[in-house]
Amino acid sequence: MPRRALIVIDVQNDYAGGELPIEFPEVQDSLRNIETVMDAARAAAMPVVVVQNTLPPNAPFMAEGSAGVALHEIVASRPYDHYVSKKLPSAFAGTNLEAWLRQHTIDTVTVIGYMTHNCDLSTMLHAFHSGFEVEFISDASGSVPYENRAGRATAEEIHRVMSVVLQSRFAAVMSTAEWVEMLQQGTKPERDSIYRSNRRARGLAVAV
Fold it and tell me: What's the pLDDT at 160?
């Protein structure tokens, strides 16, 4: 069986009605799922790591000392086994997270929290390239919309596309219900490949 740790990334007030509000999935839905996942992990005696992003005091969001940088009550009110403070998108960058996971013989990380396309994505890619198996619970995370010189994308588009890309190579993407059921039954998640994902998109046969 995998030796899992749950990584709860940046579930902070600025994402829940603050300066950078999550739009898809709806933030109250994702918060309820985060609650469910954390409770399921605790019931399964799975180590839980809480990650918090802190930016300089003059930053427009997640500013040190602000109400927005604080952990959301759903996370702050629950026990966890390790705390990581970070200043970069990946929870591995400039922190002791990898050393802690190795010390506890973790081989699989399950990622929830915010944002799908930024800190979640960076952490999952970092974990993948460090040799960990990765799981992503897509409805216990979320995205915001963007518009810049490269174009515009809705929160739903960003979240959906990132989830599809992750499933194609880097992570097993699941819903909260699927993950909890897998945990209870001791089954393994479905993983995929770039090749098979591309063939499906082209309407071609995919070998089992």
Answer: 98
